[in-house]
Amino acid sequence: MTILVMACLLTACKSEVQCQQVVAHRGFWKTGGSAQNSISSLLNAGRIGAYGSEFDINLTADSCLVVNHDFSFKGLTLYKTKLAQLRADSLRLSNGEPLPTLDEYLEASLQYPEMKLVFELKSKGDPAYEAVAIPLCIEAIHRFGVEDRVEFISFSLSACQEFARRMPDTRVEFLGGVMEPAALHDLGINGIDYHFSVFDEHPDWVEQAHQLGMVVNVWTVDKEQDILRMLELGVDQITTNEPELAQRLIEEFNNKK
Ligand code: MG
User: Fold this and answer.
1) What is the pLDDT of residue 19?
2) Is the Cβ–Cβ distance between 221 and 195 less than 8 Å?
């Protein structure tokens, strides 16, 4: 009986240890042979058991979706350039990979089916751009059967609203940092993903979000003291360029409880 009780307690502790989750920002790229938003960074995040891997999506001139943080790649504006030009042999990521398409990214992600895909649509809020990009994103998500793995994030409030409307069972987190949780909740958005300075200024927003059943993610937290401060505040997810450091700090943080 005593052994059974102890086993239950250990199980409870284990689940608590997993409460805070690590999202590798642009994948786990700070390692040999990788690059931000590369296929290798996605696979590295899976290899170290990150809860999720974040990546950025842009639209090309011929309505293809590619993985890249900036609105341009090697001096070419993505939405004005066709995919074939962007994939020229002379244009490569710093680790030698071609600019990944979303399809290639989602295909590679199937190697780590447990890992969440923290999917950021880069958008300046242009309705015409989003009217093309969002349906293409959703079509790709369905085609690869990764609906349950996607957590959508964007600085575009209109993109968050539209994604929440079209995929109501999916987690959607606004990145903008300027709205309190209740205002987003009223718009059907079920998460916030703000810079850590926002939570330093509004620490009560973490509890407010939780009261509304919203998830709290924070970017981009790389320093030990910042990660620990956000854990003390009670955030659910740490988005970081240092996922292995965050994993260790979360484990130590929970062991001290
Ligand atoms: Mg991003």
Assistant:
1) 80
2) no
Whether residue 163 is predicted with pLDDT greater than 90 in this model: the reply is yes
Query: What residues flank ion ligand 1 with Cβ within 5 A?
Result: 56, 120
Domain boundaries in the chain? 20-255
Cα(25) to ligand 1 centroid in Å equals: 7
Tell me how far the alpha carbon of residue 210 lies from the centroid of ligand 1, in angstroms.
23
Looking at residue 12, its pLDDT comes to: 38
pLDDT for res 7: 43
pLDDT at 46: 98
- Cα–Cα distance measured from residue 87 to residue 182, given in angstroms and rounded to the nearest whole number: 43
Q: What is the mean pLDDT of the chain?
A: 93
Q: Which of 89, 60, 101 is nearest to 77 (CA)?
A: 60
Burial classification of residue 57, based on how many CB atoms lie within 10 Å of its CB (0-12 exposed, 13-18 middle, 19 or more buried): buried
Q: What is the pLDDT of residue 246?
A: 98
Going from the C-alpha of 192 to that of each of 8, 11, 21, 46, 145, the distances in angstroms are 33, 29, 14, 24, 25
Question: Domain 20-255 is in which class?
Answer: alpha beta
CB 179 within 8 A of CB 189: no
Which strand (E) or helix (H) includes residue 56? strand 52-59
Name the percent of the chain lying above pLDDT 70: 93
Distances (CA, A) of 77 to 17, 59, 70: 43, 10, 9
